[in-house]
Design brief:
Helix content is 33%, strand content 20%. It has helices at residues 14-22, 33-38, 49-55, 73-82, 95-101; strands at residues 2-4, 7-12, 26-29, 45-46, 65-68, 89-92.
Length: 117
């Protein structure tokens, strides 16, 4: 666990993140729109990091939230932001790169197979 502003979030790998999503958690993708369009995890929600502070009410506080970006840096910032007011926050270590390397699905617009940019 990393301590952030007296609150904490946990770091998880792709398999644990997928299990959390399967159990009702929200995978929150904070990458930029072009990155999202190229390829994202199925069932992920997209709110770019730059918009998150203004849209934090759109993120449910009553279920696990797993933040993700390309490599894990932006999603750590998102996790720190969400740790204030949300119960269970996780950051996907290694981001979408780790997700893809673990063989997890990526989809693009219209449900086509996705890719990382």
């Amino acid at each position: 666990m990393k301590k952030v502003f007296r609150k904490s979030y946990a770091s998880v790998g792709p398999e644990e993140a997928a299990a959390l999503v399967a159990g009702g958690g929200l995978l929150l993708d904070v990458r930029e729109p072009a990155e999202w369009r190229a390829g994202h995890a199925p069932r992920a929600r997209h709110i770019p990091l730059g918009q998150l502070a203004g849209r934090v009410r759109e993120v449910p506080a009553d279920r696990p939230v797993i933040t993700v970006c390309r490599s894990g840096a932006r999603s750590r910032q998102a996790a720190a932001l969400l740790a204030h007011g949300h119960n269970e926050i996780y950051n996907l270590t290694g981001g979408m790169r780790a997700w893809g390397q673990a063989g997890m699905a990526l989809q693009a617009k219209g449900g086509r197979p996705g890719r990382l940019t």
